[in-house]
Amino acid sequence: MMRLSGRLRTATIIGMQGIRARKLRTFLSMVSLFLGVLAVVVVQAGAGIAERLQLADVELNSGIDGTKVLYMPTVPGANQAVVDTVHGRADAVALFNMSATIGEPGVRPINEGGSPFDQDWGGGSQICNQNGCYDPNAGAPQGQAIEMRLTALTGDVRPFRPYQLKSGQWLDFGSGPVMSPRLVLNEEAAKGFARYQVPAEMRVAGATANMTPQFIGVVKDGDPSPHAYLRFDDLTNWVPKAWLYDPNQMGDVQVAMAGSTPVEPVLMAKLTGLGAQGITADTINMRKQMKDELNLLRMIFLAMAGLVLVIGAAGVLNVGLATVGERIEEFALRRAVGTPRAVLAGIVLAETLLTGLLTAALAIGLSVAGLKVLAMFLGSSQPFLQNVEFPWSAGVSGIIAGLVAGILGGFIPALRAARIPIATVMRA
């Protein structure tokens, strides 16, 4: 082992001396490898960033893999059956989605249709029922009001959708209901209320009177439009249950359930008894599906980057063969004074490996700097670039790519150097 270590050290030292002595050829080899190694680093970094961004939000929007989601059919009594079944349970929660407006009454909201505040969806609010769809703000003047999506929860939804608390507190389902509904805003809604001063008056279709909400927290929920969450029993202080239970009046209702909960067969039986047909609970597998898609794209782009890397390795091979051809007398003389063939091969291979490592370091450094520059200049207009970090797994991939290219480009020249006969020095 010590003998092998000594040979490796000797080959590395002589290889470094060869790099210093032939700077131009080392530079040409690095140029040949640079694009290939850079392509590998960029593909791995881009895939890592995309995976982190998309998979981080997919659980917020769709739910944790394994969660079952049941969408309520529009049959009389379905919503009431849902509330009766999931009430007080931790393994299932019902989500009642509707539209709400907070601010001045009788005016058109700042963000009609509940659009994000920096976007204009180009349409007004629409309420649809058995009589058709209509705009409740038709003919109203523009005013200080914010329209948002409102979700009433029968329990804590975070075991199924891991909303990230940013400030304040989440809804407390262990206490009694209150007359002033407690709202948890998402980040887009919080931005709107920080930007605009609107009266604390909330209007919900079907309510007996306008409510005065209280904001208790802010969460990240992956929704780009303004959204707020409140307890179902806080809402029923103002909205008659008959209205919430009427499928012709209420918005969409869904139930999120744990995969092994007994709620599913009970709820299915109740809904079937009410006349619903073809009811199924969808199992969430979005994270696995998206990861498979991202991995497929990564493999396609890595194959293209690998092709560029092989072309670069061919350039290193060409330079290496030319260098060995010029150093035949040197290697023959080293053989004559007792240098083992393995050391001669190691000298050539060490040069190409060190060249590959230097190229990888340069490509990684350029990628890190480029990402920081992009975040600096485009971060304000591209939110996904804000606080983005370079995935060091891409750096590891770049180092491996540099070493592989060094081996591919130096293996044949190393064999050629090791086979140079001692008699060559006599002819020289």
UniProtKB/TrEMBL annotation:
It is a multi-pass membrane protein. Residues 303-422 form the ABC3 transporter permease C-terminal domain. The chain crosses the membrane at residues 296-321, 342-370, 390-412. It is found in: Cell membrane. Keywords: Cell membrane, Membrane, Transmembrane, Transmembrane helix. InterPro entries: ABC3_permease_C (IPR003838), Macrolide_Exporter_MacB (IPR050250). Its main location: membrane. It comes from the Bacteria. Signal peptide: none annotated. Pfam families: FtsX (PF02687). Belongs to the ABC-4 integral membrane protein family. This is ABC3 transporter permease C-terminal domain-containing protein. It comes from Actinoplanes ianthinogenes.
